[in-house]
């Protein structure tokens, strides 16, 4: 399992949650799954017991180049860490420096990571283990299927698209600097409009492609959400499927979440009210059990529609019982705008612009509604966490949000399947109307609101079913190993 983010070692977004929790679920099913990730400074620090197990060959990076072996915290899943201090031992995040700029040598960094994985797959890294199949995730791992395609025998590969907008496109010079074989530089290979594209290495060469919800698997084969790669994805449609992400309910359980003020469950919803009061107190919102607390927890990017929330803020606050709490990191302009909003509306708007895992839990537990006006959302995990904590999602009907949230309609109220509120287009007016629709129901029919909360809390998005589908894919791949 190759991923550039793995919770709790390194996390920017849902990729970290998905790679870690899927690996744990597969391990619990009895598969010998091993995770491989780059040795960022924070990862090396978090794994003091890691031991040297192999080496990285064929890359031009000065200094140490080792593969360390450790265990994913709180699990029995083995982890291989690619220890290349010249590329990964730095301040800043997995992808960016402390000023929020992409590392200028990202092609070298993730190119070396892919070379190291190639070595593990081919048994040339000096480890006492080789995989029967390799599961790659997002562009950082895209060169692996491409490199393996040049070998026989080779372990077959699955490539999972978590976010097609991030493609790892670099000038042709990066291709040469990585000393990649010329055979890969074709329009059917990793060349993309004169650039080299890491993600195309996965999309063009992996044996199977998946993305993280059935609806998104269809969306990415069209021009709207294909990000310029829809032609290739239509060509590979026969190999592409959508498998919904699961939730690790050990980490996200309102009955025993160490981060929240008081545990709660469907028959003990008063605990949720305590969480709300505690959140209001901590965040600096007016402490008022009758207020309706809206929450936004997201990477601050165009994808997440953070700007749509800003656009309707004035109208939202015209309703005196609404409050907004925001947690996000990313775009500097959006961070400044959220700060300004909080400053202008003390007691009504609270903004936290950092990455804060514990606060994310407290907000999910204490809020009444979660806003996800994402322009696109391959799966989305935050809405699944919200469901479990009785926080009713208000979402744009796209990707995994369309697949996981059941809109409140006469029919879904009658058959008791409603879990949230959807709107058709990611536009401010539609978001505003839908929040108002939800708030009216919350005020005027608290009994129905509680039923919607409870239906969402009981929905089961645990990994069992989805992990079994991945295991089936791997099983289908194994005969390809003989090629
Ligand atoms: P994406 O992967 O596109 O960011 P997901 O909904 O799949 O979206 O996953 C987002 C994950 O990141 C969730 O676990 C969410 O709680 C977390 N998250 C996002 N922003 C923050 C933040 N500022 N602090 C803590 N957790 C965050
Ligand atoms: C991506 C997507 C998100 C998905 C996550 C994990 O970052 O934006 O929708 O839930 O990956 O698969």
Brief descriptors of the model:
alpha/beta, Rossmann fold, 2 domains, 4-stranded mixed sheet, 38% helix, 16% strand, binds adenosine-5'-diphosphate, binds alpha-D-glucopyranose
Describe this structure in words.
The protein has 483 residues and is α/β, with parallel strands linked by helices. It has 2 domains: 14-246 and 464-482, 3-Layer(aba) Sandwich (Rossmann fold), CATH 3.40.50.2000; 270-459, 3-Layer(aba) Sandwich (Rossmann fold). The protein is 38% helix and 16% strand. It is built from 20 helices and 17 strands. The strands form 4 sheets. It has a 6-stranded parallel sheet, with helices on both faces. A 4-stranded mixed sheet has the order 1-4-3-2. Strand 13, helix 13 (332-344) and strand 14 form a beta-alpha-beta unit. Helix 10 crosses helix 14 (357-366). The longest helix is centred in the N-terminal third of the chain and has 17 residues, at 106-122. The two termini are 22 Å apart. Bound molecules: adenosine-5'-diphosphate (ADP) and alpha-D-glucopyranose. The site of alpha-D-glucopyranose (GLC) has 14 residues, from helix 1.
